[in-house]
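for ur thesis appendix - NUDIX hydrolase. copy paste whatever u need, i formatted it the way the template wanted (i think)
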Amino acid sequence: MAYRNPAPTVDIIIELTDRPQRPIILIERLYEPLGWAIPGGFVDYGESVETAAIREAKEEIGLDIQLLEQFHVYSAPGRDQRKHTISIVFLAAAQGTPMAGDDAKHFKLFNLWELPENLCFDHGKILQDYWLYRHYGRRPTLG
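the 3d part is after this line
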């Protein structure tokens, strides 16, 4: 029997610290599943999750980021319709003007209270958890 393991991914909630209200960056995906997403992607073999987060941010939005902390791990088997993934979510800061690249069709800056409805994967849940953390200091619970 062949083993089937989940694929490790990273998602990076990036606040632009040089703008009022510190908006976050979301990308509109170029490939399926279509919609808005937190920048991120798959961890390459031999790469740390921290290095993957920095690389994915540079590829998708063209900015160098400063990783601030690991936020939470999301691993529900159905979180990605393509296959079972485990995402390590990071909080990061950046400055400058983003540029859509790699598999990002567009980017847009959003305040946490004005998010688009068509979020991909479980990114609505992730951003809701982040909103609670940012405003009330409540981290997501396990389970």
